[in-house]
Amino acid sequence: MKKRRGILGAHCFLLTVSLLTAHFLVMPVWAGGVDDKIKNLEDELAKLKTQQLELRKEATAAADALPTFSYRPGRGMTITAADKSWAFTVSHRMQLHMYNHLDGEDARSGMTSGEIFARRIRFYTTYCWSNCFYETVWSIDSDSGNIPLELQDQEFNVHFEQMNPWLPILSMGIEAGARNGIYRSSSSAASLELGNVISNSSVTSTGKHTGIGLVWADVPMGPGTFSLEGHYVASALDTGDGGTRDSDRKGFIGFIGSKPFSNTKSKWIEGLEMGLGVQLQSIDSRGDSSTDTRRQRLRTNERRGRLVLIDASAIGDGYHYFMTPGVRWRIGPYTARFTWEKSNWRGERDIFAGMRATGWQAAHEVFLWSPKGFLTGSSSTPGSVQVGFMFERADMRCADKLSEMGSADCAPGSGNFNSNHMYLRELTAWYWISRSFRVGMWWNWWTAANTPVREQIAMGCSSNTSAAANGGRKDCDWHSINLGMNFHW
């Protein structure tokens, strides 16, 4: 019995020793295998992270190499290269009017109501390269009425001001731009149209011309900025888009202006602007086959049912100059604008013996309300209400070189008189649906002196030709209430 117990104890001892030996021999091997697997997994994860970073860098580099797209309301959409080596901008402008003449005779004068007139339908493209150091501008115009589909801008600019702010912009083209007065109405102003004298004289009312010039625009100077322009005009000022004439007599467009306190951050004076625009040309009837380049008119600005009070065409040789000084003052939601215009013709060897037209405007406008509250609106705030009032007087007379003013007829075929004047009172109201998109109305109250017979009947001032002829010279008043939509994408 004791022998069996001894043998069993020995077996148990051997089994215990074997188990302990296996434990100490196998455990390191098993532990080492797990560590290797963990290390292998960590290495694979590191490789994957490295690949992921490389893929991200490649994707970022590819994205950085792609052009960028941006949009600004009223300025259009711009596509710009990643390295800014080039940029391309497109925009579109649409301005629809409905002229409603309250007193006019529709069948005999075209003074109708309820028709839609495309006042400005324009498509603009701009391409620039070398970080926009070089720039080309091109656009087309497709308004209604007497303005057919045609090229509007064909301009090339070199921006030397990028090198130094005191260096100018070199501008040239067959439809290059120039500022002939910064105080004209704009697409965001309450009043839409230009002054009567500049829009009816043979000058460039938009600043477009065939020529070459230098432009210093808003150059820093002291507490404000100044602007200066000078343009050589290779043809007549009003030859039309890209037009030419057979004459060595040329023209000039100049502008000088300042925002003297624009950097002062004072709300009372930082919005003050002042300037003077000038246009000069030497008339040459030999090379001006079109009388439109030698023409001065006094007429209303409504493109449908427009009334002409004086139309003096084929003005003779000699100099012609146009000038317009102006002042504009902005403070918060309020803007005031004052301008004066003068167009003077020497008029050699014609029936007018000298022609002169003068005019002035006083315009006030205010953003009356917006969802933010009273007097908080702006053209960039949807829901803003804008109101304005403008008063304008325009005078035109001929025979400036004669001692007796009655010796020349300013309106041959329309009445025998040598002077006329016209008043316009314009009350406007606009609602801004979004930035660069508005709808509104404006009420025009016109007054004219020495009204021609045909215009007396057209505006309802006289009932028939006999009554108008018997009445002779006559002051007339008439009204229109017009609707409009302006959108600049």
3D structure, described in words:
By secondary structure, this protein is an alpha+beta fold. The protein has a single domain (68-488), classed as Porin (Beta Barrel). 17% of the residues lie in helices and 44% in strands. It is built from 5 helices and 21 strands. The protein has a 16-stranded antiparallel barrel with strand order 3-4-5-6-7-8-9-10-11-14-15-16-18-19-20-21. The protein has a two-stranded antiparallel sheet with strand order 12-13. The N and C termini lie far apart (113 Å). 32% of the residues are buried. The model has no long low-confidence stretch (mean pLDDT 82).
**What is the H/E order?**
HEEEHEEEEHEEEEEEEEEEEEEHHE
The amount of beta strand, in percent, is: 35-45%
Percentage of residues assigned to helices: 10-25%
CATH architecture assignment name: Beta Barrel
* Overall mean pLDDT: 82
CATH topology: Porin
